[in-house]
Amino acid sequence: DLYGHAYGDEALRQVAHCVRKSLREQDVAGRLGGDEFAVLLPDTDANDAVNLAVRIVSLLAERQAESSQTRVSLSFGIVQMNANETMDEALRRADQALYEAKRHGRSRAVVATGGEAQPVFSESRPLGLGALLTALALTPVWAQPTAAPPVARFTRPVPVTAPGWTRVRLDAAT
Predict the structure, then answer these.
(1) Contact assessment for residue 119 and residue 103, using Cβ atoms and an 8 Å cutoff
(2) Element (H, E) at 99
(3) CA gap 29, 95 in Å, rounded
(4) What is the pLDDT of residue 23?
(5) If phi over 0 gives left and psi between -120 and 50 gives alpha, with beta otherwise, what is residue 149?
(6) Is residue 150 pLDDT above 70, yes or no?
(7) In the predicted structure, residue 38 carries a pLDDT above the cut 90
(8) Contact 171, 102 (CB under 8 A)
(9) d(C-alpha 29, C-alpha 41), whole Å
(10) What is the DSSP secondary structure assignment for residue 1, as one 8-state letter?
(11) Does the pLDDT at position 156 exceed 50?
């Protein structure tokens, strides 16, 4: 809002590009509305989802270093989908984690466990170059897909309810 619609549109394109480049072939990403996206990561635990967040932020930082535009920060709310949990319930928990991350500052990631009524939040993790170096030292890097999957706008939740999916809710802020 501060920089105008054209800047916001370009920031969303940059974020979408970095998300697409970071995903595996089986991952699905979509824009929920405004500056919020959701990423569905099958067969991925919360720690690997945090590492994905680190990669997305790192790619965005590289792109922003080549540009004179105002920097965009990304905050992430991450949940592992529970058995018998609907997409809406998982997204609400991810939203709670996202707001907890934003409460701790810019470019943060928080994992939520437990139910929606009694969420348990992980420590807020800073994202950026230091987080990337830690992630690369501790975990293997996913192979980059040859063709990035498209980022589609969700008009309603995707009907995926199987356990083993991790939901990542992210918010781009200038």
Answers:
(1) no
(2) helix 87-103
(3) 16
(4) 93
(5) beta
(6) no
(7) no
(8) yes
(9) 9
(10) -
(11) no
Q: Is the full-model pTM beyond 0.85? A: no
Q: How far apart are CA 35 and CA 165, in angstroms?
A: 22
Q: pLDDT band for position 160 (50/70/90)?
A: very low
In the numeric block, which tokens belong to residue 156? 């309603």
Is 166:78 a contact under the CB 8 Å cutoff? Answer: yes
Give the DSSP H/E element, type plus range, for residue 153: strand 151-153
Q: With left for phi above 0 and alpha for psi between -120 and 50, is residue 76 left, alpha or beta?
A: beta
- What positions carry a catalytic annotation? 35
For 6-27, how does the pLDDT look when each residue is reduced to its tens digit (9 = 90+)?
777 888 888 889 999 999 999 9
Q: What is the phi-psi region of residue 29: left when phi exceeds 0, alpha when psi lies from -120 to 50, beta otherwise?
A: beta
Closest to 4 (Cα-Cα) out of 56, 70, 64: 70
Q: How would you classify the pairing of strands 165-173 and 73-80?
A: antiparallel
CB 113 within 8 Å of CB 120: yes
